[in-house]
Specification:
heterodimer; A: alpha+beta; eight-stranded mixed β-sheet; 18 helices; 29 strands; B: 492 residues; DNA polymerase, domain 1; Uridine Diphospho-n-acetylenolpyruvylglucosamine Reductase, domain 3; five-stranded mixed β-sheet; 21 strands; Ald_Oxase/xanthine_DH-like (chain B); xanthine dehydrogenase activity (chain B); Xanthine dehydrogenase small subunit (chain B); 2Fe-2S_ferredoxin-type (chain B); EC 1.17.1.4 (chain B)
Chain lengths: 784, 492
């Protein structure tokens, strides 16, 4: 029985592409009925796991005494590396450097050494604290600031990008500035922590419900650790309580441990990390030390640049290689560098292994670019916005020569000029620049600052094989549609967008399309939902699946009605077959009766892209997404405290699939980027312990940290240059670096204490402390 | 007269009466809801009262009224719920029927993305809406200080919050309509008895009155006294300390009073920040402004000013502010009371002037007289819901000739206890209140304080910012025209 009565006269379907739709789970979110892994009904006898973590940053494990742990109330078993039946290894880059449980040595404070399995979670947590572990401590490297990139151990092969002759350009440039910047990392702070529930099946089978962005990778890692073929392992996730990159590879450890325990004990096992454990034992956004050397002319046009992007990788490779790569891919942001040399240095440290985080190194590269812009602007005595505009890549359609990236890809779709021009106008940049100067002249304590920063973000995985996706679409005999694809839902509205694409394809109302949990059993070998690619890839794959079924329906209708295929047209909730209009549901039923296959697996791979890492050349990105933000701040020069007075954003999502969802991504991305660069500070003590490991000490933005005035708009005129899914553009990561506008507005306010003559070189995160110390430094330099 | 003893805990959960005879003193409301009642709409995000994903409403009788407040279920112990009404997100739209106005607004204005924080936001907004159906942006933001969202950037949530009243009226809300019957049911549960639950190393007591509390603590001098549990909650969830035997004093009526006599406000040890907020905002506005920056709304709804003093934190936030006002503290042991200057209570790090079996009963706060300049300035990494890096409180009395007749300056975060800046005070006292006097006094900070470096701030920053707070205080008391601080809420 279905309550659905489709409108058979409608001019448009409800919920097609380019229409604003509410999140498909919104009503479940607000009623508390949306089921996350920890909310699932546990099988009878489910056991709970807790982790035993290292309490030294680097050391040889001399002895492990778990007798008290085993004897604790409720404890069923304790796993060590010896209990891993397959390979004790979950390195996503296959570097053999990421054990499930530490074996012989520990390389960071908080590394999991053992895993307690108990009747209750509390019992497991309590027991985990009773271990007696002796270490022979080794020297620990925590910070990267003072490391020599030429000699210090690197966790993976670095990348060098080169175009032209940077050394000569620098040597011959009329002006030249060198500098360094310290740029902090960031914890994902997804509200739902890492969690997995593993349920053993017969033979070698197991199902793992895991809060993961990469079910296929989790599946392969679990299989690897269990020593079974991938076909034995099913990984499923309906939704995550946030991901942001933190559940791309970092979900694997919990999944593997729960699975190992479940298989060993033949009972369901759940492992959910406590917030402190989650922040201590799982990776974060990489912090960087950025060295730059820039040559430019008296106008402020950049002639040559040399960069080193050193990143704190932590103890293993994880994704540090590609994160460093993406920093280099974005070290130009939206600017053309005639001669460029840039290298990454993924440095080994005795800290948790850093990982993917929304932007994946790209924002860090852009921070480097914008610092350089500031340096040039102060050197030539101009407003940084003028320098930005002077150095942009050629606009789309301009047959110029300033369009080649440091990785030799031609920028063909550049619309940053128009975005910046429109934003400058709508935000009244010039008027406010003047008003702020007047305000600052009469305000000795509180200073205001303004900055407008652009974003150009490359869309595609640079790992070419990741740019593929699959989907599975079934049409049932009642005309309802079951949709599945390889992407995961972490709040970004991916399932909704893909469902809109499917609804559009069949021309049926959105509520006829059922969104189902992501599972490796339906769509295999999927890419993680990352690199902003979710809708681009999975939307296309689902469209492909729907089209196959649609083609069969067209064939069927044309044949049975003896008309040309062109006379079969899908209209809203109905199909015109010759002169007749047949409800979609009826056509489907007829097709079934005539034994037409109503299920299809869809597939998509991104065209055009290629990348030769060894040569540093290629068409790394299918296209670019653009945006710009203008922020104004007030800074208290006595304490360094500040507020964001106003932010205006204009962002490009091509022909948006769903404006409400995209606006949400832009607003949320901006605030997350702002948090990264302002109040979110990761602080390790001299023992290598992360001391900001919970919200009491790690401060993400609050509602009251939003800009007082916050105007967010999408470009209503842009469409993807390439034939993307309905000419939309990716929106997950590109808005995050809009937060740079706040860092630069702070910098601008600080600069006012030295009459805008000295580049503040404000490091990030720009906590009130860093702001005050920069104010003091500038005052001292200016002799004030 | 000894109180009657009852060996069961009674409260109402949504629409059901609950009677528990066996519950651990450290059982949190969150775990109980999720694990014992399978109510899994309420989420655990941090287990330390900082993210708000576990927000539920607790209704308690205040006189004839029933007041609902958002609290963090993750650090709320079951023992503190006697005779309360616990409302979870599942109660708002039973059987997933028609959505509640708060829920419908959040759906329509796209206020959820991943949805994990959403039930907590719903409950916080619900609590606000019942108190203030058409709130200002300040009220909304203040109500949401204890709710973290990592996806939306909050803007959509604020848009939802502004729109709630267009979806329905508070008077028609189920909790409003049920109010009389809930009050009656709660009154029926409240027999005025002392509650004692458990035995051995798993015991707790809810005293019936302040005299009963005195008796309980004399018998159990080593008991853990819990008022709001915003600190003790973390001893359990983060440190897994054993807190038994536990004495829950949040319901002791005599400790929940506030009075204002002869220019002295007496605040009972059980008065929460939220209960004190309106009153103090009116009488001593600087304290109201400070309270608005302590914890989030859920923490303020649970946390007490007395608890903030009794736990002896070196940071505060209330102790330095109250010390600068010249407050006194009344302690009670059995039936014996003594009153001491508040600053003398703090002896050393982790050590207070409190005898075994003695408890903090009330704090007496003199309202600054006409002409007194009083200010409190808190500095933290994030402006709201953050633990202080340094906090300075200033109480200045100028003589007719413009000299400093008396000044009290107290800081948090600068030493092992909340502490007066005695050397600075001495350097200012008797001098003309001028910039040069202030500058001449600045070096005295080095005598008064040797702050630490930690994850919140370096020693250098703490010292510099502390000094600059005196400079700010000077500027704001000497008629500076230009702004001397930044504020989200001041007119632009």
């Amino acid at each position: 029985m279905t309550k659905h009565a489709p409108n058979l006269k409608a001019e448009k379907i409800v919920g097609g592409v380019h229409s604003t739709q509410r999140h498909d789970s919104a009503h479940k979110h607000v009623t508390g009925t949306a089921v996350y892994i920890d909310d699932m009904v546990e099988p009878v006898g489910t056991l709970h796991a807790g982790l035993g973590l290292s309490n030294v940053a680097h050391g040889i494990i001399k002895s492990v005494d778990l007798s008290a742990v085993r004897a604790a109330p409720g404890v069923v078993d304790v796993l060590t590396y010896e209990d891993v039946p397959g390979v004790n290894e979950i390195s996503p880059s296959y570097m053999d450097d990421d054990p499930v449980l530490a074996e012989g040595k520990v390389e960071f404070h908080g590394q999991p050494i053992f895993c307690v399995i108990a009747e209750t979670r509390e019992q497991a947590r309590r027991a985990a604290r009773l271990a007696k572990i002796e270490y022979e401590e080794l020297p620990a490297v925590i910070d990267i600031w003072d490391l020599d990139v030429a000699t210090h151990k690197q966790v993976t092969t670095p990348l060098t990008l080169k175009r032209g002759d940077a050394a000569t350009a620098l040597a011959s440039a009329p002006r030249r500035v060198k500098g360094r910047m310290r740029l902090g990392g960031q914890d994902h702070f997804y509200l739902e922590g890492q969690v997995s529930l593993a349920i053993p099946g017969e033979d070698d089978e197991i199902i793992v419900y895991c809060s993961t962005q990469g079910p296929s990778e989790t599946q392969h890692m679990v299989a690897h650790a269990l020593g079974v073929p991938s076909h034995a392992v099913t990984v499923e996730v309906r939704r995550m309580g946030g991901g942001f990159g933190g559940k791309e590879t970092q979900a694997n450890q919990c999944a593997a441990l729960a699975a190992i325990a479940a298989k060993k004990l033949k009972r369901a096992v759940k492992l959910r990390l406590d917030r402190d454990e989650d922040m201590t034992a799982t990776g974060k956004r990489h912090d960087f030390a950025i060295d730059y050397d820039v040559g430019f002319d008296d106008e402020g046009r950049i002639l040559g640049i040399d960069y080193t992007f050193a990143l704190r990788s932590g103890f293993s490779a994880d994704l540090s290689g590609p994160v460093g790569d993406r920093a280099l891919f974005h070290c130009d942001n939206a600017y053309f560098f005639p001669h460029v040399h840039a290298k990454s240095a993924p440095l080994y440290t005795n800290t948790v292994s850093n990982t993917a985080f929304r932007g994946f190194g790209g924002p860090q590269g852009m921070v480097g670019a914008e610092r350089v812009i500031d340096e040039v602007a102060f050197a030539v005595g101009k407003d940084p916005l003028e320098i930005r505009k002077l150095n942009f890549y050629d606009a789309m359609g301009v047959k110029g020569e300033r369009n080649l990236t440091p990785y030799h890809q031609k920028v063909e779709d550049c619309i940053i000029q128009r975005i910046v021009a429109e934003l400058e106008e709508s935000a009244d940049y010039a008027g406010r620049r003047k008003a702020i100067a007047e305000f600052n002249a009469t305000s000795p304590v509180v200073k205001r600052g303004l900055a407008l920063t652009p974003v150009k973000f490359g869309i595609s995985f640079t790992k070419t094989e990741s740019n593929q996706a699959g989907a599975l679409v079934h049409v049932y005999t009642d005309g309802s549609v079951h949709m599945n694809h390889g992407g995961t839902e972490m709040g970004q509205g991916l399932h909704l967008k893909v469902a809109q694409v499917v609804a559009e394809e069949f021309q049926i109302d959105l509520d006829r399309v059922k969104i189902t949990a992501t599972t490796t059993a339906k769509v295999p070998n999927t890419s993680p939902t990352a690199a902003s690619s979710g809708a681009d890839l999975n939307g296309m794959a689902a469209q492909d699946a729907a089209r196959q079924i649609k083609e069969r329906l067209i064939d069927f209708a044309a044949e049975t009605h003896q008309i040309p295929r062109e006379q079969v047209v899908f209209l809203p909730n109905r199909v015109r077959v010759g002169n007749e209009e047949i409800p979609f549901n009826d056509l489907v039923k007829q097709a079934y009766m005539n034994r037409v296959q109503l299920s299809a697996a869809g597939f998509y791979k991104t065209p055009k892209i290629h990348w030769d890492r060894a040569k540093g050349r290629g068409h790394a990105f299918y296209y670019y997404a653009y945006g710009a933000a203008c922020s104004e701040v007030s800074v208290d020069t006595l304490t360094g405290e500040y507020v964001v007075e106003r932010t205006d954003i204009l962002h490009d999502t091509g022909r948006s699939l769903n404006k409400a969802i995209d606006i949400g991504q832009v607003e949320g991305g901006f605030i997350q980027g702002m948090g990264w660069l302002t109040t979110e500070e990761l602080w390790w003590d001299d023992k290598g312990r992360l001391r900001t490991h919970a919200p009491s000490t790690y401060k993400i933005p609050l509602a009251s940290d939003r800009p007082k005035v916050f105007n967010v708009a999408l470009t209503d005129w842009s469409e993807a240059y390439e034939p993307t899914v309905h000419r939309s553009k990716a929106v997950g990561e590109p808005p995050l670096p809009l937060g740079l506008s706040v860092l630069h507005a702070l910098s601008d306010a600080i600069a006012s204490v030295a009459d805008h003559k000295i580049c503040p070189r404000l490091d990030a995160p720009a906590t009130p402390e860093r702001v005050l110390m920069a104010v003091e430094r500038l005052k001292a330099q200016a002799g004030k | 007269m000894a109180a009657a003893i009852r060996n069961e805990l009674r409260f109402i959960l949504n629409d059901r009466d609950v009677v528990l005879t066996s519950v651990a003193p450290d059982m949190t409301l969150l775990d109980w809801l999720r694990l014992s009642r399978n109510l899994r709409g309420t989420k655990e995000g941090c287990a330390e009262g900082d993210c708000g994903a576990c927000t539920v409403l607790v209704g308690k009788r205040v006189g004839d009224e029933l007041v609902y407040e958002g609290v963090n279920a993750c650090i709320r112990f079951m023992g503190s719920l006697d005779c309360c009404h616990v409302v979870t997100v599942e109660h708002l739209a039973p059987n997933e029927g028609r959505l509640h106005p708060v829920q419908q607004a959040m759906v329509d204005f796209h206020g959820s993305q991943c949805g994990f924080c959403t039930p907590g936001f719903i409950m916080s907004l619900y609590g606000l809406w019942m108190k203030s159906p058409t709130p200002s942006d300040f009220e909304i933001e203040k109500a949401l200080q204890g709710n973290l969202c990592r996806c939306t950037g909050y803007e959509a949530i604020i848009r939802s919050a502004r729109a709630i009243s267009s979806y329905g009226r508070v008077a028609e809300d189920p909790l409003a309509k049920e109010r009389a019957s809930i009050v009656a049911r709660l009154a029926a549960l409240d027999d005025g008895a002392r509650v004692e639950i458990g035995e051995g190393g798993q015991r707790f007591v809810v005293p019936a009155s302040v005299d009963d509390l005195g008796a309980v603590l004399e018998a159990e001098p080593k008991a853990t006294v819990v008022a709001g549990s915003t600190d003790v909650g973390l001893w359990v969830t983060k440190m897994m300390r054993n807190i038994s035997p536990t004495v829950f004093i949040g319901g002791v009526k005599e400790l929940r009073s506030m009075c204002d006599e002869d220019g002295v406000i007496t605040i009972g040890a059980g008065v929460t920040y939220s209960e004190a907020f309106d009153f103090l905002s009116r009488r001593i506005p600087a304290l109201g402004a400070l309270i608005a920056r302590i914890g989030g709304e859920q923490v303020r709804n649970m946390g007490t000013i007395g608890g903030n003093i009794a736990n002896g934190s070196p940071i505060g936030d209330m102790p330095p502010a109250l010390i600068a006002l010249g407050s006194t503290l009344t302690l009670c042991k059995g039936t014996t009371r003594r009153t001491i200057p508040l600053e003398e209570f703090f002896i050393a790090y982790g050590k207070q002037d409190r005898q075994p079996g003695e408890f903090v009963e009330s704090v007496q706060v003199p309202v600054p007289a006409e002409g007194i300049r009083y200010a409190v300035h808190k500095i933290s990494k994030r402006r709201e819901e953050d633990i202080t890096a340094t906090l300075g409180a200033f109480h200045l009395e100028l003589a007719g000739d413009g000299t400093v007749a008396a000044i009290r300056i107290a800081y948090g975060g600068m030493a092992a206890t909340p502490k007066r800046a005695s050397a600075v005070e001495a350097a200012l006292t008797g001098k003309p209140w001028t910039e040069s006097t202030v500058e001449a006094a600045i070096p005295a900070y080095e005598q008064d304080f040797t702050p630490l470096t930690d994850m919140r701030a370096t020693a250098e920053y703490r010292m510099l910012a502390a000094k600059n707070l005196l400079r700010r205080f000077y500027l704001e008391t000497s008629g500076a025209e230009a702004p001397v601080l930044v504020s989200r809420y001041a007119a632009a």
